[in-house]
TrEMBL record:
<dbReference type="GO" id="GO:0006355">
    <property type="term" value="P:regulation of DNA-templated transcription"/>
</dbReference>
<keyword id="KW-0805">Transcription regulation</keyword>
<dbReference type="GO" id="GO:0003677">
    <property type="term" value="F:DNA binding"/>
</dbReference>
<dbReference type="InterPro" id="IPR036388">
    <property type="entry name" value="WH-like_DNA-bd_sf"/>
</dbReference>
<feature type="domain" description="HTH luxR-type">
    <location>
        <begin position="191"/>
        <end position="255"/>
    </location>
</feature>
<protein>
    <recommendedName>
        <fullName>HTH luxR-type domain-containing protein</fullName>
    </recommendedName>
</protein>
<dbReference type="InterPro" id="IPR000792">
    <property type="entry name" value="Tscrpt_reg_LuxR_C"/>
</dbReference>
<keyword id="KW-0238">DNA-binding</keyword>
<dbReference type="InterPro" id="IPR016032">
    <property type="entry name" value="Sig_transdc_resp-reg_C-effctor"/>
</dbReference>
<keyword id="KW-0804">Transcription</keyword>
<dbReference type="Pfam" id="PF00196">
    <property type="entry name" value="GerE"/>
</dbReference>
Length: 255
């Protein structure tokens, strides 16, 4: 199925939101933007460990769902959540998209303990699921939930278009976190003498960078071009005596 031009524009908005988000807010920014792309009641980012049926990370929009008193029932029945179980059994793999209505009939779904104890109370009748990762006994899922049955071809198409960007963003964030941690163990924080060597504009850029800003986001904040941001950062790297962005972020993290 072909998608409309405005769908592609909104898809690019989701990608931009992911790229511009600070490291700690990637999931929330992505979910908020994705909910405007695919109509849903809630959307969540979920990481699970399949050998222990443990939830490693969960971010939900709207955020109040995370604090629901019945959420403990979801965790109790995690292994019975159809897409999680399908990943564990090898029926779903990295890069797949599916829905609850693809995996089972409505009658079968409503007979599940996880429906009776959790999804029924939340009014969830169908979910559209993107399998960002399913390997090494771990899954990363992005799940769109609705109170009515059925996601259309348009929803499925735009999710398939979005999925590679989700995978790239997750890999990038993890690699950056690992690199930052590794470099931080080998660096010392910025001292006042180094800070004094920076120009006022360079300090502004470094401050934005410390808050998780990308070149594009810093450029918008300071009303300059991304190319100018890059030039200033090159000067900062030279003055601070670091090889690049990751090392600078690491020094800022321990400052």
């Amino acid at each position: 199925m072909s998608v409309r031009a405005n769908d592609l524009t909104r898809l690019l908005d989701v990608v931009a939101a992911m790229n511009d988000a600070p490291d700690g807010g990637f999931e929330r920014a992505m979910l908020t933007s994705a909910a405007e792309l695919i109509a849903c009641d809630t959307v969540s980012y979920n990481e699970h460990r399949l050998d222990t049926w443990q939830e490693l990370r969960c971010v939900v929009e709207p955020s109040y769902v995370e604090r629901s008193p019945v959420r403990r029932e979801y965790l109790r029945h995690l292994g019975g959540h159809p897409p999680v179980e399908a990943c564990a059994r090898g029926r779903l793999a990295t890069g797949d998209t599916t829905s609850l209505s693809d995996l089972m009939t409505q009658r079968e779904y409503r007979r599940l303990p996880i429906y009776a104890d959790y999804f029924r109370h939340r009014g969830v009748e169908d979910q559209l699921v993107a399998v960002v990762k399913a390997r090494d006994l771990r899954t990363v899922l992005v799940v769109f939930s609705r109170s009515r049955r059925g996601f259309g071809d348009r929803d499925r198409t735009v999710l398939r278009l979005l999925l590679p960007h989700l995978q790239h963003a997750v890999r990038h964030r993890r690699r950056l976190a690992a690199l930052t941690s590794s470099v931080a163990n080998r660096t010392t924080p910025l001292g006042p003498d180094v800070w004094d060597r920076l120009t006022e504009r360079e300090r502004d850029i470094v401050t934005c960078l410390a808050s998780g800003g990308t070149d594009q986001k810093i450029a918008r904040t300071l009303a300059i071009s991304p190319r100018t941001v890059g030039k200033h950062l090159e000067n900062v790297y030279r003055k601070v005596n670091v090889p690049g962005r990751v090392a600078l972020v690491a020094q800022l993290a321990v400052a």
